[in-house]
Every structure is written in structure tokens, then in C-alpha cells.
Amino acid sequence: xxxxxxxxxxxxxxxxxxxxxxxxxxxxxxxxxxxxxxxxxxxxxxxxxxxxxxxxxxxxxxxxxxxxxxxxxxxxxxxxxxxxxxxxxxxxxxxxxxxxxxxxxxxxxxxxxxxxxxxxxxxxxxxxxxxxxxxxxxxxxxxxxxxxxxxxxxxxxxxxxxxxxxxxxxxxxxxxxxxxxxxxxxxxxxxxxxxxxxxxxxxxxxxxxxxxxxxxxxxxxxxxxxxxxxxxxxxxxxxxxxxxxxxxxxxxxxxxxxxxxxxxxxxxxxx
Length: 271
Known about the structure:
Elements lengths: L2 H4 L1 H20 L10 E5 L5 H7 L4 E5 L3 H10 L1 H5 L3 E4 L14 E7 L8 H7 L4 E11 L16 H4 L9 H11 L2 H13 L3 H10 L3 E10 L3 H5 L4 E2 L2 H4 L2 H7 L2 E7 L12
Helix pairs in contact: 2-3, 8-9
């Protein structure tokens, strides 16, 4: 496990910078953020991603299963909490129902969808929260990328630095993990094994749930790597993108803007 995963304040700042510099500008290509916009993030953790939206004066709601992480979020975002610009809900998205008058302009899932079983069910569930002209930002690592199994979180240093370990057959992968991880972390890693998602499968799910992706960016070096490792972001080369198998193995992170409104256009295109 890298040191920044242990330092929650440092990781909060990394998430904030990456959101400010890459996610918010992508969203604002299609929807201008301001006092009249509302944003919900599923799996908000300590709230780093949402801080960038809060700076745009949007109202935000953070949904997170782990109450301990929300306690830190309330601490890190204390001023916004005091202004009642942000609220938090410590619930599973399937156990949380919106109020009738609510509807969000933007829903954010950053490195979360690969943790949630039955992603098709999840996207259908989001219909309850999204305005008719709303959009969803979804970012995730391709399952087939070197660390698509999140094995970098392993306590064992050798396993945490072994690429493609998660592509072993499940029984063998489980046996290796079991030898070096506690029960809780073992289950977390196996859950990701069972729910990991590729760009190809994700796009099939979008079609089945009647969503359209308005834009996608496949990164060889994701934006947050600059703050983690001082490596400048790089999109996947078009030739690599055109070869499905290669695309999956080299997509370290995929960014999608998704909507039910197929006619939603870039703001710069409007006359």
C-alpha cells in the first residue's frame, strides 16, 4: 500500500486537485455549474472530488457507506458544511431513496462502479436521482489494466507491486491473497475480482440501460497520477484505442460523460 493511501488528508487533496483539473472541466463542457446546480457523488469517501464542485457554488450530496470516512469529510469540508452547501448520507445507494422534489444535475462515480455488484441495476437505480437533462460522470480503471484488481492495496509489498496478478484464475488468485492478507482485505479484493469492469462491458451495459455516452477519454496515464507519482497525464494513442484487446490492457483509467438525453450537446457548440 502506498503511503498516500494511509494519509487521508493528503489523499483528499490529490482527489481534489484531480477533480478540479480534469473532472469538473469535463462536466462543464456539457453543463455550467453554479448556485442552481446540484451534484451527488456515490462513494464520496473524504469528499476530495466534491470540493472542486463546491468551489463552483454547487449544492452537493455525498453518499458513502463508511461512516468513518464521512467524519473526515465533514472535518475537511467544515466551512461548506456550516454554510449548508453540502450534506452527507451514510447509506448504500440501494437503501437510499431521494425526496420527490429532488433531482440532481450531475452524478459522480469516481473509481466506484468497479466495486458495486450488478452495474446494470445500479445505472437503472440512478434514474431515480437524475434530472431529465442531467448527466453522470463515471471514471474507472479497466479490469485488464496492470492493477485492475486493486492489488496495490495488498499489505504484502511483493503482491502490491505485481501487475496482472488479478488475471489469474479465481481459485489461484484467492489462494495467493489468502496467504498474505487478512480476512477483510481478502474479501474486498475478491469483491473487486467479481465486479471488475472493462470499457467494452461498460458500454454494453450503457446500451442495455438506455444511456448514451456523450464523451469518453481513455487514459494511459490518468490525471491523478501527476499528484501521486509526478507523471503527466497521457491519453491512450488512437491506434491502441482502435484495437479492443490492447485498449483494455492499457486503459489505466476511463472517463465517461453519460446521459439519458441523447441530444445534450457541448455548451461551446450552442449558438
